Every structure is written in structure tokens, then in C-alpha cells.
């Protein structure tokens, strides 16, 4: 095949209809691209606004949660101080009867021979096991009296048990201990005083009952003595 020289070659122009169709397609594609780009830009702007809103909302939630945790911690500390300062003993057991908390008052009450100990102990006397078994499993039991023997003194305790449900352990219980030693001692002293007063009243009544016949005997003895003295005097005359 013979090739013409380059200077004699002519570029064939595309048909006029094909050029107009291509331009229209390009214009339509460019318009579609601009429309899509505009829609994407609008969506991106909305997404940025939504992300900003969510970020501020999350910051507010985190701040509120932090404040709630701080308030919770303050409340826990406050309640712990109240429990530690209570004059009655408080012991908390979980569902498996494991000791979770004991305040200083309970530690002192359960160790009557160690009054100087003010720090809570994790170990408890053996008698407490039988106490836990004996107490009824009720929402709130009646107070029962228990004697705690110590190295230097014995102590009478009033023990009350309360149950409450928790999600963690299923059922915790609280033992509340009251020192009844002085009250029992006062009751005994009042009973001794009452008996002594009753004996004094009986003695007074007996003395009164005995004094009446003795007075009569004394009167009759005096009359007899006067009569005998008169008879003796007349005999001497």
C-alpha cells in the first residue's frame, strides 16, 4: 500500500452530528457531576453538623456522667463515714455469707477483751456462724440476744438481721448489733432493788404484826407487875 507524504496528508474532520452529540453528552455528564458534587457537599456539610452535634452531646453526656460518678463517690464516702461513726455495730454479708464490711463499733462489740482496737477486722468470732444459722431468713427479723464472752468481760448483744436483694450477689444481709450489757446490768440492779424493797415491806409488815401482840403482852405484864407489887405491899403491912 502506498503512503502519501505527511505534507499531503489531510485530517478528516468528524461528522458535524457526531461532534454535537459528544458535546451534549459531555455537558450532561458535567452537569450531572456538578449536581452530584453539590449533593455530596451538602451531605458532607450536614454530616459535619451532625458529627459536631453528636460530639457536643457526647461531651455533655461524659461531663454529666463524670459529675454523677463524683456525686456517687461523695455519697459513698458520706455513707461510709456515717456507718463507721454509728454507735451500733454493722456487718454486711453477701449471698454466700462472706463478710463484705464491718464497722469499728461491730469490731469492738465482737471483741470485748480488746477495747483499744478501733480498726475493723476481717475475721469474725466463731460464734457468729451459729448466730447466722439461727437467725430466721426474713426481710427483717426480731432482735435476739446473744452473749459474747471476752477475755476480760462478757457482753450481751442485741442482734437484728435484715435482707435485701442485689443484682451482683442476689441476696445480701445486714447484721445490726446493739450493746445491751449496761441495760441488762441496770435491769438486774432494778430487780435486786425491787426485791430488796419487797423484803423491806414484808419485814415492816411482820414487825407491825409482831409489835401488836408484843404491845398487848407488855400491857398485861405491866398490869400483872402492878398487881403483884400491890399484893406484896399488903402482905408486908
Q: Indicate the percent of residues in helices.
A: 55-70%
- Overall shape: it is rod-shaped
Note the main sheet: 5 strands, antiparallel
Content-based structural category: alpha+beta
User: Mind telling me the C-alpha Rg?
Assistant: 52 Å
Q: How does this structure look, described?
A:
This protein is α+β, with helices and mostly antiparallel strands. 59% of the residues lie in helices and 14% in strands. The protein has four helices and five strands; from the N terminus they run H-E-E-H-H-E-E-E-H. It has helices at 16-85, 104-109, 127-134, 181-236, and strands spanning 89-93, 99-102, 144-149, 154-164, 172-179. The protein has a five-stranded antiparallel sheet. Strand 1 and strand 2 form a beta hairpin. The chain is rod-shaped. The termini are far apart. The model is unreliable at 116-123 (pLDDT under 50).
Amino acid at each position: 500500500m502506498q503512503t502519501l507524504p505527511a505534507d499531503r496528508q489531510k485530517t478528516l474532520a468528524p461528522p458535524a452530528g457526531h461532534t454535537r452529540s459528544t458535546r451534549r453528552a459531555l455537558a450532561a455528564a458535567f452537569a450531572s457531576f456538578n449536581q452530584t458534587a453539590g449533593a455530596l457537599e451538602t451531605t458532607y456539610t450536614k454530616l459535619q453538623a451532625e458529627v459536631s452535634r453528636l460530639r457536643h452531646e457526647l461531651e455533655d453526656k461524659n461531663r454529666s456522667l463524670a459529675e454523677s460518678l463524683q456525686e456517687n463517690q461523695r455519697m459513698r464516702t458520706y455513707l461510709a463515714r456515717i456507718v463507721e461513726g454509728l454507735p451500733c455495730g454493722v456487718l454486711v454479708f453477701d449471698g454466700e455469707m462472706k463478710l463484705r464490711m464491718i464497722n469499728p463499733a461491730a469490731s469492738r462489740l465482737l471483741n470485748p477483751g480488746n477495747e483499744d482496737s478501733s480498726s475493723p477486722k476481717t475475721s469474725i468470732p466463731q460464734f457468729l456462724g451459729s448466730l447466722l444459722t439461727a437467725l430466721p431468713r426474713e426481710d427483717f427479723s426480731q432482735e435476739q440476744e446473744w452473749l459474747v464472752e471476752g477475755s476480760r468481760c462478757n457482753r450481751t448483744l442485741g442482734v437484728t438481721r435484715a435482707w435485701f436483694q442485689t443484682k451482683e450477689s442476689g441476696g445480701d444481709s445486714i447484721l445490726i448489733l446493739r450493746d445491751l450489757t449496761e441495760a441488762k446490768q441496770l435491769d438486774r440492779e432494778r430487780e435486786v432493788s425491787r426485791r430488796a424493797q419487797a423484803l423491806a415491806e414484808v419485814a415492816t409488815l411482820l414487825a407491825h404484826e409482831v409489835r401488836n401482840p408484843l404491845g398487848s403482852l407488855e400491857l398485861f405484864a405491866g398490869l400483872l407487875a402492878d398487881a403483884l407489887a400491890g399484893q406484896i405491899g399488903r402482905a408486908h403491912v
